[in-house]
Structure formats: C-alpha cells, structure tokens
Design goal:
Elements: H1 2-10, H2 41-51, H3 56-64, H4 79-86, H5 96-109, H6 140-148, E1 166-167, E2 172-173, H7 211-215, H8 224-243, H9 254-268, H10 272-278, H11 283-290, H12 298-308, H13 312-317, H14 321-341, H15 348-360, H16 369-376, H17 380-386, H18 388-426, H19 433-439, H20 449-460
Helix pairs in contact: 2-3, 9-14, 10-11, 15-18, 17-18, 18-20
Length: about 475
C-alpha cells in the first residue's frame, strides 16, 4: 500500500498554475472589426454598460473617470459628464479624447483592438473639422434585420461620419430624427442604448409606425446622379474603415500632397489652376494642399478622388497614385476612341421599340433623352431626326418628374422647417435661417419662396 501511495504522489504536479489575467469589466468583443460596418467606440461603451446592466453614465463616472484625469470626465455636480456628452463625437475621432477612452477601455476590458472603432489610425491625414455628426444617425432597416435575426444591435462607425448620409445596403437615407418623438438624438446620454431613442425610449427599427417617416426620406427622391454619389461615398468610406486593421503603418501627412501633386502632373501637366477648375475648387486652396501647407476636409478630398476615379484609401496610402490615375485615364480614352471609331449603323425598328419602352416603363427617376441615347449607343440628334415626337415625350416625362420631385421636396422641406422651428422654440432659441438650415436635409431648398414663407411664419410665432 505504501509503495502504491508513493507512486501516486509522484504524479502530482506541485507547480503553481498560471492564471490568466482577469479583466475588471466584461471582456466584450467589438462588432465587425475589419469590416465596413465596424461599430463605433461610442456604441461599444453603450453596449458595455448594457452588458453590466447599468446606465452608461454610471459606467463612465464609476469606472472610466478614475482612469482619465481630464476635465471632460470630472464628475463634480455632473458638470464633467454633461461636457463629455456634448463632445461625444470626439470619442470616435482622431484626437486625445478618443485615445484616452481607448486606453481606459482596453485596460478595463483587456480588449486590444478598440482603436479600430475610431479614426485614430488616420489622424495625420484626416482633418477632424466637420468630420462627424453632432447627433445620432441610423438605418432603421439594419436595426430591424439585426433584431429579427437576433444579432447584436449596435451603431457602426460609418453612421457617425457626417458625409455618409446613405445606407447602400438598403438604398435608404440614414435617419436623424426619432420616428416616435420626432426629435434628434444625442450621440451619448446617461441612458444611451443602441437601437433605442434616449429621449422617449422608442425602438428605432423599421416597423408599421415608422414606415411613413422612413418613406419620406426614401432614395426615390434622389436623382440618378445623386444616388450614385451617395452610394459611392458610403462605399469608399466603408472601405477605408475596413482596411484599418490590415495596414502595417498609418499614412503620413505628406501622402496627400504627394498624391495630389502626381494627379495634377498627369491630368493637367502640372497646371494647378487648370486642375482646380476641373474639380471645381479654388486654385489657391488646391495650391495649399499640393504644397502640404494645409489638409483638405474629407468631403473635398472625396470630390477629388471621385473626379480621378480612385478610392480614398488608394489616394491616402498609395506609394504612387500616378500609375493608377494613368491606367484609369487610358481606359477612359480607349472607350472614347472606340465610340468614335466604330459608329453603329442606325437600327430604325430597334430604336423605335426602345424609345416606346422608355416612355412606358415606371423607372424612377425616368431617363432623360440624353441618357436614353447613351443606352442605345446613338447620338441624341440622330435619334431626334427620326423620332422627334417620341423624343419630346421622353423629355416631357422627365421634366414632369423633376417638377413633381421639386414640389415634393419643397413640401417635405416646409414640414422639416416647421419641426426644426418647434424644437428650437421649445428650447427658447429663436429659429434663425442659419440655425434651421444646419438641421435641414436639403438646406438649399430655403431658396424657394414656400419654404422661406414657412420659416418666416415660424419666426413670427416665436414668443417675444
């Protein structure tokens, strides 16, 4: 028995076991890292609070504030948290607030990839000015689909960026007002929870009570050109966000001046004024960017990229954007040359049938005569010579649509101005044209007399 016992004791491992480090807070995995719909840091904080069954404000004041000795999280009399909530967009951005919160959250959760929920990686090449929305925006159809498939409800970083106004997955504008209480929603509040309004607590996904609200912001009110632009913007910004975890190092500020200089050299033989004219920007501004004396805002940078036919990611990270621009220009020239060299023989019956089809179908928006001619591959004047009546009818159909679209947008803008003015008046703020236009979906519609009359009426109702 003794010998048996001895042999058993020899098998015991008396070394102290290695115990993995424990996190103070839930080791919550961020959603979608490495994809265009990676969640934002503000969304992650809100989900982290929910996973601990506490309000977001409680989590920040009790756990995060002690790790961040900065003015914006000091909680004396609540002043610090209010200041933080007012500047919450900075948490997803490129500055010190985003960096502080990433470090604090990584220490508390032991997650190591939270910087990818912000634009910190792009700090040297992306100007923070007007980069983010002041309030929450969302795609109600995304929320609804995630909810029905029992996926995590969260807010992608893409939705927080001001120039992204469209969900390309569902061809919908991002919503900016709660369908239940019709108010804008702050990005962070004491009770923020992804998928719900922090003002009234209502669900923000698409359902029977929100259908009419969503349809009033539908993509059918966009022209074909506007739809292509909004879709392209969402795609290239999404591509930039998705690529971040896979890039070896952040691009230096000099890359913008370098890429812009090569583009100007190739497109206009180094003539900055000519290039500025092509992209419809002031020549002095383009000169400043090309010399590296200033950084362009993202919306203006996208305008240049779209003109060149390159993505924002390529423009910011490419070693030599020139080769890519040359390839795109050569392809464009070859297509133009093929079109000039190989004119099609005119097929009378085929063109007539196609024009009748264009006139009869319900495509929204309807084709202009120029677009119809491009689809058929014939010169518009040639088609008009053979079928003047059909051409006039197609043009009239588009003009009627444009008129109806303008009237619809005027009506929507009038209602929007009324809603914005009511919200401002409730806060005791006089609804000036400047304040109202900043909150409008289409501020340019203030030039129409109906919309201006609505604003003037709202101003007249302001209590003196």
């Amino acid at each position: 028995m003794l010998s048996d016992s001895s042999s058993i004791h020899e098998l015991w491992d008396l070394e102290k076991p290695i115990i993995p480090e424990r996190s103070c807070l839930h080791h919550l995995n961020p959603v979608g890292v490495g994809s265009p719909l990676v969640e934002s840091l503000t969304s992650y904080v809100a989900r982290l609070a929910k996973s601990h069954n506490v309000f977001l404000g409680v989590l920040i004041s009790r756990e995060l504030a002690p790790l961040i000795e900065k003015v914006y999280v000091k909680t004396s009399a609540g002043m610090g948290l209010r200041a933080l909530f007012n500047r919450a967009t900075a948490l997803n951005g490129t500055g010190i607030m985003a960096k502080d919160f990433v470090q604090a959250l990584e220490k508390l959760t032991l997650q190591k990839n939270l910087q990818f929920l912000t634009l910190l990686f792009w700090a040297d090449v992306i100007l923070p000015k007007e980069l983010f929305r002041d309030n929450k925006s969302w795609c109600p159809v995304c929320y609804q689909e995630w909810n029905l498939s029992q996926k995590e409800i969260y807010d992608p970083l893409l939705w927080t960026i001001s120039i992204v106004k469209f969900c390309p997955q569902h061809n919908k504008f991002l919503c900016e007002r709660c369908p239940n209480c019709h108010q804008k929603i702050s990005l962070l509040t004491w009770k923020t929870q992804p998928g719900y309004c922090s003002n009234c607590g209502g669900w923000l996904g698409k359902n029977s009570s929100t259908t009419s609200y969503i349809e009033s912001h539908d993509s059918k009110y966009l022209s074909k050109k506007e739809l292509q632009w909004e879709t392209w913007v969402a795609q290239v910004i999404g591509e930039l966000i998705a690529s971040t975890p896979y890039l070896a190092s952040a691009p230096p500020k000099e890359n913008i001046a370098k890429s812009l200089g090569r583009a100007i050299e190739i497109v206009t033989d180094g003539n900055i004024a000519a290039f500025a004219s092509l992209v419809e920007l002031p020549k002095n501004t383009v000169w400043m960017w090309q010399r590296g004396k200033a950084l362009p805002r993202v919306d203006l940078l996208l305008k240049i990229c779209h003109f060149l036919g390159v993505s924002l990611l390529d423009f910011l990270t490419s070693e030599d954007i020139g080769n890519l621009v040359k390839t795109i220009l050569n392809q464009s020239q070859q297509r133009s040359r093929r079109t000039r060299i190989s004119p099609k023989s005119f097929d009378y019956e085929q063109v007539q049938d196609a024009l009748v089809t264009v006139l009869a179908n319900d495509e929204i928006p309807p084709l202009t005569m120029k677009e119809a001619a491009q689809r058929l591959g014939y010169d518009r004047r040639t088609i008009f010579q053979h079928f003047p009546e059909l051409c006039r009818d197609i043009s009239a159909k588009y003009l009627n649509y444009s008129k109806e679209l303008r009237l619809t947008n005027i009506e929507l803008s009038c209602r929007e101005v009324q809603d914005i003015a009511v919200i401002l008046c409730d806060k005791g703020v006089y609804p000036t044209e400047n304040l109202v236009s900043k909150s409008m979906t289409k501020p340019g519609y203030l030039r129409y007399k109906e919309v201006r009359a609505t604003l003037q009426q709202a101003q007249g109702n302001f209590p003196r």
